[in-house]
Design brief:
CATH class of the largest domain: Mainly Alpha
Number of strands: 0
Order of helices and strands: HHHHHHHHH
Helix content: 55-70%
CATH topology of the largest domain: Hypothetical protein af1432
Strand content: under 5%
Number of domains: 2
Shape: globular
Number of helices: 9
Largest sheet: none
Distance between the termini: 53 Å
């Protein structure tokens, strides 16, 4: 078994014993971020750093309406260090992993300074786009008690956007801006492809309405 596979098993065992109650930040999310990272990273990237950051970047994730929301990634980095240290993970890699975790967050607004952090940030933002992004957007909106869209003006043609009240508004407020923030070439191409799925959904919804 390769080193990466061994660590995946260790991480999955830990997460299996410490499951998340948040369906948008659970082990399935971590696996998909790792998969996306694999698809966009170059050969010079430290895969073990990216792997650990992919699996623990949201080990603490406060709800969007929580007062400490902007601290999620910093607190997750501290928690990840504690977990990885307890697993006897290579100590020299933990600093970069913590930076990857801190910089992945959109709300934290931290610039990724390592290639690994750029990969993790792109891979995580991919989760907000495409079919997965659609599902996660409306899942989170349901948990927060938001409406699907404004019945009188769903596309906000004559009103201010309010993604705290309407899930569909989140597309324009944040999600469709994500491709421009991508740090890697392959990440940007994939993000643009996935953003088109959101645009098509909006067009289909308008036709139905």
């Amino acid at each position: 078994m390769s080193e990466l596979k061994e660590w995946i098993k260790i991480f999955e065992d830990y997460l299996g014993k410490n499951p998340s109650s948040d369906g948008s930040h659970n082990v399935g999310h971590f696996r998909r971020v790792w998969k996306s990272a694999n698809n966009i990273m170059d050969s010079d990237v430290d895969q073990l750093v990216v792997l650990a950051a992919s699996y623990f970047h949201d080990i603490i994730s406060y709800p969007k309406n929580h007062p400490n929301r902007s601290r999620s990634s910093k607190d997750a980095a501290i928690k990840a260090e504690e977990i990885l240290t307890g697993m006897n993970f290579p100590e020299e890699k933990i600093g970069n992993i913590k930076h990857c975790i801190e910089a992945h967050s959109f709300s934290a607004n931290i610039t990724p300074e390592t290639v690994e952090a750029k990969v993790v940030q792109d891979a995580d933002r991919m989760e907000a786009l495409g079919a997965i992004g659609l599902a996660r957007t409306f899942y989170v909106a349901g948990k927060l008690g938001s409406e699907l869209f404004n019945e009188n003006d769903p596309l906000a043609k004559e009103r201010e956007l309010d993604d705290k009240k309407y899930a569909l508004d989140h597309f324009k407020v944040k999600l469709l801006k994500l491709p421009a923030t991508m740090q890697t070439k392959r990440g940007k191409l994939e993000a643009e492809k996935r953003a088109n799925i959101l645009v098509k959904f909006t067009e289909d919804l308008q036709l139905e309405l």
